[in-house]
Amino acid sequence: MKALQFDYTLPRYLLSKVGGRYLPSVYWHSRLSCLRFCEQPEPKLPNEHWVKVKVKYSGICGSDLNLIFLNDSPATSPFVSFPFTIGHEITGEIQELGAKISHFTKGDRVVIDPLLSCMTRGIVKPCPSCIKGNYSLCEQKTEGDLSPGLLIGACRDTGGGWSSYVVAHKSQVFKLPDEVDDLNGVMVEPFSCALHSVLRNPPNKNDTVLVIGGGVIGISVIAAIRALDIPCKIVALVKHEIQAQFASYYGANDVIYLQKPSYIQQLTSSLDAKVLKPLFGPKVIQGGADTVFECVGRKQSINDGLRFSKNGGKVVLLGLAGIMDGIDWTTIWLNELNVKGCFAYSTEEYRGKRLRTFEIAIELMRLGKVDLSPLVTHRFPLENYYHAFQTATKKGTRSAIKIVFEP
The CATH number of the domain where 80 resides is what? Predict the structure, then answer.
């Protein structure tokens, strides 16, 4: 089968870093690249508790682009194993069942929670986080029966969605009901990221929420708040026209374009705050949002998240913020802000029950509380990955939101 894999070597890494400064396509279309389009055997079931899934759709996530452009922090490198097939946003059909699986049948339409925690690794004594159901915080991501890997799509033993087949532990697999089509299926994973952040940091009634970023996660945060029927004001800060359209469609009350310098005054007005002028440097904002969901992970977006948060407010970091200079942390102590990171998905409190985030996401889709299929704007065969990445890096001019492969 065909697969898109990432295989790190120091010479390829250095050559790509240098060449990519002048021609971005070097990162994915060069013999010097760490990315390989290759022929691979189908993955085998690790044991009788696993299934093999034929991939229908697999999304291109911002974290995948971060990987390809070699922007990941080395702090994540112990939690991968090379070479690995990329792709963790996966929907497909079960093709093969392990001998000890009885609640699935061949042909079931499923989505996969890609986190590789204690249970998937065959670890008899789970870590404290996994015992509590906080699988995203698993403390044994390098142990057990599998090679190191945060998730499917970063582990050499499981394969990934950017191929025809992938294997998953039975605890990672969730059936799709008839009411949830395959395009919504591929959106379950990114929607679960947003849902996790909202359920762990729920806005109060009549709060003002600022969502920074109009990509898939930012739009999904807006959709999650509305699907959960939280009556708060949502202000979205976006970059492109299509992002503004979707932000409004999914429930933002006000949409501000990231255009310098006008966005500062517009956003301040929308948040019922005021601008103060320092001796020099960026304008200071007094007042702001009760909760900020920062969904970009760039220097400007993080600085904006901190300064547009009201005194005593909360800033939730969903964007892939790596190593960066130029972050002004003054407002954290000056305004006593609560800054919180949020990674992936887990187990949540929902209507008096403890449920996996994926279960809640699928149920909200089944009930018609949210339909994210319109966000899938582009689909490409795997062999056309060059055009897929070109589109992903020019989202504004190509009106792209979510791009998926059809292996």
Answer: 3.90.180.10
